[in-house]
Design a protein that fits this description.
- The structure holds 2 protein chains of 2 kinds.
- In chain A, α7 (149-158) packs across α10.
- In chain A, the strands form 3 sheets. Chain A has a 5-stranded antiparallel beta sheet with strand order 1-5-6-8-9.
- Chain A is an alpha+beta fold.
- Chain A has helices at residues 6-17, 23-35, 37-54, 65-83, 91-111, 113-136, 149-158, 198-205, 209-227, 244-257, 261-273, 290-294, 323-332, 334-350, 388-391, 401-406, 415-427, and strands spanning 140-142, 160-162, 170-174, 181-186, 230-233, 237-240, 278-281, 305-309, 314-318, 366-370, 374-379, 394-397.
- The N and C termini of chain A lie far apart (139 Å).
- In chain A, 53% of the residues lie in helices and 13% in strands.
- Chain B is an all-alpha fold.
- The chains are: A alpha+beta, B mainly alpha.
- Chains A and B meet through α1, α3 and α4 of A and α3, α4, α7, α8 and α10 of B.
Chain lengths: 428, 238
């Protein structure tokens, strides 16, 4: 036998032990073993090893194996069933079909990309046109536009705002109701406030140049807030920002807060002389700086939410309107918008008013009612909603003589009472 | 027309079922008749009893399974679970671990059985699944050891040497053989387990491990050589 290395020897002897060698090979190995004692020892060890492995202890059959396996298999089937909406055997076929569809659709899209681009452009154009038709072209318009400083001051001090100089229709925010605020849009009433201009205010209160700029900014902000707080639409729809009733009180508070104590006395005299619905207290508090005042004033209606009132329904919902572009659009077509708004308002006030559902899903119970001459919304809010402690200048509703004379003891949400009051005002 | 006796024609001594002819007899709605025009409910063959099914060949059971009677898989599992569990136990030497692994092997086989082509015997096919599964598991273990910076092989060799250093009468031969197997690389370990513990032929091992016959011989001789060196004190006792 030719000389072998150890690995070759192991290989040969392993085959020999397993009986895998031919008769001639066996004879050769045995003649070699007869001469080599170390090889004999190796064969001996291999046989011993084989015996040990063969006699290795076996595990007994597991009687419960099937039951456990069946449960595991069931679980597996459930998992597969929940993952695949079709039998598992269809996976390859469905994969191929889906891939083919993706390729075909992808190819079609690439080949006809210009048509697709045109289609989506037309779609977006259609959406833009709908928006322009509904919002920009007057389907939904701000009731008030171009609210200047004088009108903003008038609203802040007295809670009333005429639609324009000629119109008798005005917005009235009345805080005298014990249950909350009342917003009325209607013809002139008995509580019409005296006209107030910014120049008159300056002459009476005599603010410094800095205070004047501050109040000027406040009134500008008030004007913009009024413009975006009351919207009127086709089909006798009206949208009112829920924080509108607080707006005038908030502005009076801020105007008072930026005045020095001696100016505040003048301001209170002005309010009293004009029978304003508010009175200034805590007059000794020093004037506040502009940045502290402005940081407490919200710039737009809260979360873009409005009370949307139609003849039959009332909801509290988001209404996304780009007021800046709306204003620009209205400035470009002033006459057309004015005519449209006038017509909408007439239709709304002149209609036979129906009661809307009493409560909307919001913390503030809201009611709307009216007659042929006016439209009124009452919003019940906590009396001290404005953070007056933070402002430190206290503005309180003034008890006015007219109200004391005319208001019924239970002046609240009774439809009859409101109708009577309004009718009384209109007949005078 | 007399119904054939339950189990008649299903003997495992016979040739495996002709696919699509005899297999139908396992499905109650199918009829077993040579005359297709006389197919009536009278000729519906009753399902074989459990005893008959238990005696049926692997091929017959697989044919029945492929014809839609998945219940027969139970008899295949019961027949082969012991061998598969022992194979996995020899490779991993971890009683708790192998039960889950054996379940996975049989689930894999269940899913693949509809595609079984009778080109190999069922148990070598099942062994192949088990070996592939254990290879995957060993790779995972190796990866886990790598990322946890453990040197398990060295630990096994150290333990083996410790156990071999005690007096021969205190040695646990079974434990030593198991540790010796654990110290082998996976492909050598599997080859020697299949040959010397499970008693498969070289050709069957080549089929199970999907490699050449020469490779199998080489792996077995290398494995034995390594084991002989590792267990030398034990082998010299006799």
């Amino acid at each position: 036998m030719k000389k072998m290395n150890e690995q070759q020897m192991d290989h040969l002897l392993s085959q020999y032990v397993d009986g895998r060698l031919s008769e001639i090979e066996v004879q050769k190995v045995e003649s070699f073993l007869a001469l080599d004692t170390s090889a004999q020892q190796r064969v001996k060890e291999l046989r011993r090893l084989k015996d040990l492995l063969t006699s290795k202890q076996k595990l007994a059959p597991d009687i419960g194996f099937w039951n456990r396996f069946a449960a595991a298999l069931e679980e597996q089937k459930k998992d597969e069933h929940s993952l695949l909406p079709f039998p598992r055997k269809f996976v390859p076929a469905i994969t191929i079909i889906v891939a083919a569809v993706v390729v075909v659709v992808g190819t079609l899209v690439i080949q006809n990309r210009m048509q697709f681009i045109q289609y989506f452009s037309e779609k977006s154009q259609a959406v833009r046109e709908v928006y322009e038709r509904n919002v920009l072209q007057g389907q939904l318009l701000p009731l008030f536009s171009k609210v200047d400083k004088d009108r903003a001051l008038q609203f802040s001090l007295f809670g009333t705002l005429a639609l324009d100089d000629k119109s008798k229709t005005e917005l009235r925010v009345d805080q005298q109701s014990k249950k909350g605020y009342r917003i009325e849009v209607g013809k002139d009433s008995k509580n019409k406030a005296k006209p107030m201009t910014f120049d008159h205010f300056l002459a009476e209160v005599k603010p410094t140049s800095g205070q004047k700029h501050l109040i000027d900014s406040l009134l500008e902000l008030t004007g913009r807030r009024i413009e975006s707080s009351v919207l009127i639409g086709e089909n006798n729809t009206m949208a009112i920002a829920p924080d509108l009733p607080n707006l005038n009180r908030m502005m009076v508070t801020n105007i008072a807060a930026c005045l020095e104590p001696y100016q505040r006395v003048q301001f209170e005299r002005l309010l009293e002389a004009n029978d304003a619905p508010y009175t200034v207290t805590a007059q000794s508090v020093p004037a506040r700086k502009g940045d502290r005042i402005f940081q407490n004033i919200p710039q737009s209606p809260r979360d873009n939410r409005f009370f949307i009132i139609t003849p039959d329904t009332m909801m509290y919902s988001q209404l996304h309107i780009d007021f800046d572009s709306l204003r620009r659009h209205m400035e470009e077509n002033v006459v057309m918008f004015e005519l449209r708004r006038e017509a909408m308002l007439k239709r709304m006030i002149a209609r036979e008013f129906q009661h809307a559902p009493r409560n909307v899903p919001w913390p503030q119970p809201v009611q709307s009612f009216g007659n042929e001459e006016f439209f009124s919304v009452e919003i019940n809010v906590p009396t001290e909603e404005i953070e007056q402690q933070q402002m430190r200048v206290i503005i309180q509703p003034r008890i006015r003589k007219q109200i004391l004379q005319t208001a019924t003891p239970n002046h609240s949400i009774q439809e009859r009472a409101w109708k009577d009051t309004a009718s009384e005002g209109l007949t005078r | 027309m007399a119904l054939p006796l339950p189990g008649a024609g299903w003997s495992s001594k016979d040739k495996p079922y002709q696919i699509g002819v005899r297999a139908r007899s396992f499905v109650p709605s199918f009829t077993k008749t040579n005359d297709a025009s006389s197919m009536t409910n009278d000729h519906i063959l009753p399902k074989p009893s459990v005893d008959v099914l238990r005696k049926m060949s692997d091929e017959a059971l697989i044919t029945a399974f492929q014809s839609g009677d998945h219940d027969v898989y139970r008899f295949l599992v019961e027949r082969h679970q012991e061998r598969i569990r022992n194979l996995l136990f020899s490779i991993f030497h971890d009683r708790d671990f192998i039960d889950d692994l054996a379940q996975e092997v049989f689930i894999k086989a269940y899913q693949a059985l509809p595609r079984f082509r009778f080109e190999a015997s069922f148990y070598t096919w099942l062994y192949r699944i088990a070996v592939n599964k254990s290879r995957d598991e060993l790779r995972k273990k190796k990866l886990r050891r790598f990322f946890s910076f453990q040197t398990l092989d060295e630990g096994i060799e150290h333990e083996l040497n410790m156990r071999l250093s005690v007096p021969p009468e205190d040695r646990d031969t079974q434990e030593l053989v198991a540790l010796g197997l654990q110290s082998l690389p996976e492909k050598f370990r599997t080859a020697v387990v299949l040959k010397d513990i499970d008693g498969l032929s070289y050709e069957e091992i080549a089929e199970v491990m999907q490699c050449e016959l020469g490779t199998v011989k080489s792996r077995i001789s290398r494995a034995r050589s390594m084991l002989r060196k590792a267990l030398k004190p034990l082998l010299e006792e006799v």
